[in-house]
Design brief:
The protein is an alpha/beta fold. The protein folds into 3 domains: 2-215 and 407-483, 4-Layer Sandwich (Metallo-beta-lactamase, Chain A); 222-401, Rossmann fold (3-Layer(aba) Sandwich); 486-522. The chain has 16 helices and 23 strands. The strands form 4 sheets. An 8-stranded mixed sheet has the order 6-5-4-3-2-1-22-23. Strands 7-8-9-10-11-20-21 form a 7-stranded mixed sheet, covered by helices on one side. The chain has a 6-stranded parallel sheet with strand order 14-13-15-12-16-19. β7 and β8 (150-156) form a beta hairpin. α3 (83-114) packs antiparallel against α4, α3 (83-114) runs antiparallel to α7 (279-290) and α5 crosses α6 (249-263).
């Protein structure tokens, strides 16, 4: 039994862990890195075609976003998730593929004019469709046998619709080890979705640490706090612009605005309109509505059973087409604009920032984590000017963070989760900026005696003993250079070819000669 950390090791995105046990190779998550890449991640130590299955904690792109790339490399196993996660991945992976293609097309238009090399997308829409076809859906608390000696179960982790911690039981040579992967642990008392379910026991835990060194400053009343921002901005004649993650955070905000409307908390302009400008967010909202009974909390269910939709209200407008999106910024009325992406890295939010950042009467409200290296992080940290679509924009709008509205547990929430688990031999801390990971690891060791360790990418662990087999120290990690996704795909094909040749031993001489001749012809073609 062996576990290798691939991504989100001393970084806050790109979650991926590789396991070998019971004759199987499998992954827990395969996410895309967002913001600045701090370290060069090691490659998965086998070809994608040799991965037997994937276990997915939730649909956010930093956990699921490279599954189409895995499919493009020859993976054809099953992807196990909750039903709501599978539903969300259908739209999110397609959206990600669309972004890959759109950005490559945009870069190539510039490349043609400047004579630079053509860019290929990381993966295509067909790759996303292939990945989507591999999903297998499961209910919370259902214990599933994946192979001889391998069982697993999803527990609601309260982070996103369908999000889960994953309990895994591995049995080899009559020895069983239980590993719990936290996924992203949710904040308590969030709107709409239920609080985290706490595991009872495990030998090893792999847990996130996004807020491992911070506590949330929770407003006494989220709804009142948001309403005050809207009132103050409307009194000046401005707009409230909210960069929001399309899946999860947007739906929570709609829940808040429904209550603001019901309680009449915006007095300056009580009939104000709230625009959701994100096709992905609109689709995701429909999926939230389809998964109410299995994922909503008691308060949201009470709305539903009284005949009310908790995320719809008078004045809610949606923009699907680009023309509808553009029209929002030419309205004369004060309004709330909710648009993706939540870290301002892509999507329609950048257009709304371009139209509103320079206006001192407007307010930009951040309601989620802003990763290092993102435009959102720069604005939160006080940037005086930013560049959008090649144009320098002065930042005159008020920049606000609404504290406490986070899908992640803070330090106390993380400690509550880990201290519920009995019998732990070792805790592996990942998915956090380096400082947060190290400080949280130190807390677990010194205050809770939990034998915690913060691995780097490439760290290998013996799951029978908990022994660290290999780990590179920070000084030995190479800063990540600009990646070439097409070359990475070529390396995946090479791994697949190596596996094919190895598996061909024992076939007829005729078959072997034919394969050798075809490969030789291909080599001759490229060498010449």
């Amino acid at each position: 039994m062996k576990m290798t950390f691939i991504g989100a090791a001393h970084e806050v995105t790109g979650s991926c862990t590789y396991l070998e046990a019971c004759g199987k190779r499998f992954l827990v998550d395969f996410g895309m890195e967002q913001g600045r890449d701090v370290y060069e991640n090691v490659r998965i130590p086998c070809a994608p075609s040799q991965i037997d299955f994937v276990l997915l904690t939730h649909a956010h792109i930093d956990h699921s976003g490279l599954l189409p790339l895995l499919a493009a490399g020859g993976f054809h196993g099953q992807i196990h998730s909750t039903a709501a996660t599978a539903n969300l991945c259908e739209i999110m992976l397609r959206d990600s593929a669309h972004i890959q293609s759109f950005e490559a097309e945009w870069k190539n238009r510039k490349a043609k004019r400047s004579g630079k090399e053509i860019t290929e997308p990381l993966y295509t829409m067909q790759d996303a469709e292939t990945a989507i076809s591999l999903f297998v859906q499961h209910a919370y608390q259902e214990k599933i046998r994946l192979a001889d000696g391998i069982e697993m179960r999803f527990l609601d982790t309260g982070h996103l619709l369908g999000s889960a911690s994953i309990e895994i039981w591995l049995t080899e040579n009559e020895q069983t080890r239980k590993i719990i992967f936290s996924g992203d642990i949710g904040n308590i008392n969030q709107p709409l979705i239920a609080d985290p379910t706490y595991p009872d026991a495990a030998d090893f835990a792999v847990m996130e640490s996004t807020y491992g060194n911070r506590l949330h400053e929770r407003p006494a009343d989220y709804v009142q706090a948001l309403a005050e921002v809207v009132n103050e901005t409307f009194a000046k004649g401005g707009n409230v612009v909210i960069p929001s993650f399309a899946v999860g955070r947007t739906q929570e905000l709609l829940y808040f605005f429904r209550q603001i409307k019901e309680r009449g908390l915006v007095t300056v302009y009580p009939n104000f309109e709230v625009y959701v400008d994100s096709p992905l967010a609109i689709e995701a909202t429909e999926i939230f509505n389809r998964n109410q009974e299995s994922c909503f909390d008691a308060e949201a269910i009470a709305y539903v059973r009284s005949g009310k939709n908790p995320i719809q209200f008078p004045g809610l407008k949606t923009a699907v087409t680009s023309d509808e999106s553009k029209a929002i910024n030419f309205s004369k009325d004060c309004r709330v604009i909710i648009s993706a992406s939540g870290m301002c890295e892509a999507g329609r939010i950048k257009h709304h920032l371009k139209h509103n950042l320079w206006r001192q009467e407007c307010t930009v409200v951040f309601v989620g984590y802003q990763a290092e290296g993102t435009l959102g992080r720069a604005l939160v940290e006080g940037a005086q000017k930013v560049t959008l679509f090649g144009e320098e924009i002065k930042v005159k709008a008020q920049i606000r963070q609404l504290p406490g509205i986070s899908g992640h547990a803070d330090k106390n929430g993380l400690i509550t989760w880990i201290t519920h688990i009995q019998g732990l031999k070792r805790v592996f801390v990942n998915h956090g900026e380096s400082t947060a990971m190290d400080e949280f690891t130190q807390t677990l060791n010194s205050e809770y005696q939990l034998h915690a360790y913060a691995p780097y990418t490439g760290c290998e662990v013996d799951l029978l003993t908990g022994e660290i087999l290999h780990d590179e120290k920070p000084a030995e990690i190479v800063r990540k250079p600009a990646s070439n996704p097409v070359y990475d795909r070529l390396l995946n094909v090479l791994q697949r070819l190596t596996a094919l040749v190895t598996a061909s031993r024992g076939r007829t001489n005729k078959d072997l000669a034919r394969l050798a001749d075809r490969l030789t012809d291909l080599c001759d073609k490229w060498e010449n």
